[in-house]
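Minutes, project check-in
Item: structure for the 148-residue chain
Input as provided by the requester:
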Amino acid sequence: MLTKKGKYGLKALVHLAQLEPGKTAFVSDIAEQNNISKKFLDAILLELRKGGILRSKKGPGGGYALSKPASEISIGQAVRILDGPLAPIRCASKTAFEPCDDCNEPEHCQVRHSMMEVRDAVSAVLDTMTLEQMVTKRSSPAFGQVTL
């Protein structure tokens, strides 16, 4: 499930993607226009900057902007930066695998295998969906084609 942090981060990215090229936005403006706490948004934007999706500039004409075109920013990348792995449970994660305390044989666990399928389906959608597509409300080729 997408956390509030992830949702607010995506809302902020959509906001920034809609700016004219070369323009920046202040945290306070993004927060106000998207009904997000400024303090919370400060932390979110900092993580997205550290993750390479945003750039920031101090002083007059400063603020935040996308570090690359919206067409090159994957929604999956943004969600992982803010919310961590896409797997619904740790034992199904590719990057943050942790065996369950109650499982002696994770390689044979049917719950784990099912959740790995869920992870792969979510990843297939989010990793092919770009910020540009989100802004223009177009679906990625994988969107709607994943069968569960």
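Outcome recorded: The chain has two domains: 4-66, 70-136.
No further action items on this chain.
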